[in-house]
Each structure stands twice: as C-alpha cells, then as structure tokens.
Design goal:
about 45% strand; 6-stranded antiparallel beta sheet; 28 strands; about 375 residues; disordered N terminus; Jelly Rolls; mainly beta
Length: about 375
C-alpha cells in the first residue's frame, strides 16, 4: 500500500469516528412514533375483552381511562371499525387518553400526523396536547373519506428536550366505550423555510409539509388556523372553518414537485399567506390548478385574492389528472399583502358521494413587475 493511500484511508476512518461520536449525522425526525401504528399488542393478561387493563399495558404508551385495543372490521353489535393503515387501533372512551414522551429539539417546530375517525356519536372531539399550554380540540364529526381513512396533522413548537404527546377524548357519551378511533401516529420535524430566489411566496410548491403515511393515504387534513397556532404547512394560514388537504405525488396527481393542496370544502376551505410588498408597486401572482386524479369530477373553480384584485379560474375536471396555470396582476396597497385562495364549489367523488374533494392548488409564485 502506498504512503498516500494509507494516509487517505486513515483520514477517512478518523472522520467517520468523529461524525459517529459527535452525532453530527443525526437526521431530522420523520416517521411513526414507537408503536405509533399500535400493531404491538398488549399481553393477553392485560386485556379484558378489548379493554386495556393497566396504565403501562399498551407497549410504548401510557393510558388513562377506558381505552380499547381493537381490530379493524365488523364488531359485536353491528359496528364496523375502519383501520385502513393496518390491523389494530385504539378507541378512546369517555374522558380517556393515550400519551407518550418524545425526544425533540427545544425551539424546533414539529407536525404530528395521525389517523382519526368518529365511531358512534356525531359530535366526537379529539383533543391533542403537547406539554402544558399547547393543545387543540379537533372536531371529527365531518367525515372526508367514506372508508374511514381520515388523516390529520397538527403542529407544535418544542419547549424542552422531551415533550408529552397526548390524545384525549374530552367527551362523555351514554355508551362509555364510544369515542374517537386512533390508528396511526407519526411525527416530523419542520425545517426552517427559505425563500426561493425571485419568489415572494414561502413554500409556494408545498414541498415542506407534514409526514405522509406510505402504505395508505387519502391525503392529510390540515385544520383551520383557529385550531393551531403553528401551521403544519409552514408559511401558510388555513383561515377557514374547514380544513384543506395535503396530497402527495405517490398517491395523487400533483402538478409539480412532490406535493400540493386540495381544497376539499368549497368556500369553507380557504388558505392564505401574507407577504411583504411595496405600496403602489405591481406584482404578478401565478399558480396552478388541477385535479388530483382521485375521482373528483365536474366544473371546478378556484378564486384568488391579492390586495384589491380577484381572479376566478375555472377548471373542468374529468378526474384523470391535469392542470392549468393562471396569472393575476395586482397592485399592492400596503407593506403587507394577503394572498388568499378558496374553492368556489363543493365536490364529491364520481362514484363515492361520501368522499369530499376539490381542486388542487400548486406552484404559487409572486414576483414584482419590472
């Protein structure tokens, strides 16, 4: 072996040892929580039929109250519990909860992605909390997917190195076992946003967003702004009463890049971003609308607002995947301009009227007019 080759090999081994010891190669958190899919079952001795007995009997989780460990499919009494991402899930009875401690970076922002659906009552609520002071009540009475595959995302900022993530049913029903079904929980660190050169919009291609389950996805519902102080879609405000849906290229048609947003609840499903502008200066807003190739059909229309200007963009969907680009020239009236989008109409899938859907929005850009 030549002296030069020996020196090079020694340097490479030293660098590997330094990186291994320092932990400099640690990747951002992105994936299921430990036993986040609940496929690791309690011991048979810790189950009384489906009810989990013992605070620490659900592996990797801590439970409080009446928590059931259930399998998907037909249930006694004529119920059917959908568990589209696996075999098992947990059902939270009256005032019951499941929680887990997660190691995080103080000051960093994270998004939780979880599958949740109601099982009995029309007014079921799922409360998500992370430590003291950060919580949201998520109403799950509206089903956006007829197969029970509704997935939500909720974001938080870590205040310490370890946070307690809790899912709680605050309701009290006549049947104490009635409550939300939770069937998968994942977490993703949301990296700081960077401006794309020449574009005043942050995250205009929606490439930075919550974790998307790989084995099954009907998209990720992003709750309205009043439900979360930190957006699971960085840079954007979900300012309507109903959520919008984050869709990925693996499971849907996306006009460009890896992800887009589907406006699934008509005028109740709006999103916005506030950008810096120069008063009286002209700008061009461009964006792409289309359909997600998910059975959503018919005459669609996306409305865009910028300062005092409005643009209505019609799109005729045959649910085969497609898109068109639109342009709105507007004049700023202040140092801050709100850019807003919503769907003008309500839509459902062609062969599944219980599945709400809508036009897809992608590739949003604002550039100054020269």
């Amino acid at each position: 072996m030549s002296p030069l080759l020996s020196l090079s090999l020694a340097f490479s081994l030293s660098l590997f040892n330094i990186l291994s010891v320092s932990g400099a190669v640690t990747l951002p958190l992105d994936g299921l929580l430990p036993n986040g899919d609940f496929e690791e079952a309690p011991k048979p001795s810790d189950l009384k039929k489906t009810v989990i007995v013992g605070k620490h009997s659900l592996p990797k989780w801590e439970i409080d109250g009446l928590v059931e460990f259930v399998s998907g499919g037909p249930q006694p009494g004529g119920f059917f519990l959908p568990v589209p991402r696996g075999v098992h899930a947990v059902r939270l009875g009256n005032e019951a909860s499941v929680s887990q401690y997660v190691s995080v970076k103080p000051g960093s922002e994270y998004a939780l992605t979880f599958g949740a659906t109601r099982t009995c009552a029309q007014d079921e609520v799922l409360r998500i909390s992370v430590g003291p002071g950060q919580s949201a009540d998520l109403g799950i009475q509206t089903l956006y997917s007829s197969d029970g595959g509704d997935t939500y995302a909720w974001a938080f900022q870590a205040a310490s190195k370890s946070v307690k993530v809790t899912f709680h049913n605050p309701g009290i029903q006549e049947d104490p076992t009635c409550g939300p079904l939770l069937d998968a929980v994942a977490i993703k660190e949301m990296l700081p946003l960077k401006y794309t050169p020449g574009n005043l919009i942050k995250n205009g291609g929606f490439e930075i967003g919550p974790h998307v389950f790989k084995n099954f996805s009907t998209g990720v519902l992003l709750p309205a702004k009043q439900k979360d102080l930190i957006s699971p879609l960085p840079g954007w405000i979900i300012e309507s009463m109903k959520p919008v849906k984050y869709v990925d290229r693996k499971h849907f048609f996306v006009p460009s890049g890896l992800a887009a947003v589907e406006l699934v609840a008509g005028r109740e499903s709006a999103m916005a971003q506030i950008i810096r502008t120069v008063p009286n200066k002209f700008y061009n807003l461009t964006f792409t609308v289309g359909d997600a190739k998910n059975g959503c059909h018919g005459s669609m229309m996306v409305e865009a607002f910028a300062a005092k200007d409005t643009l209505k963009v019609p799109y005729e969907s045959t649910s085969k995947g497609g898109s068109k680009t639109a342009n709105l020239k507007f004049q700023a009236t202040s140092t801050r301009t709100r850019i807003t989008f919503f769907s003008a109409y309500y839509h459902t899938k062609l062969h599944d009227y219980g599945h709400m859907c809508g036009p897809v929005l992608d590739d949003v850009k604002v550039v100054p007019v020269k």
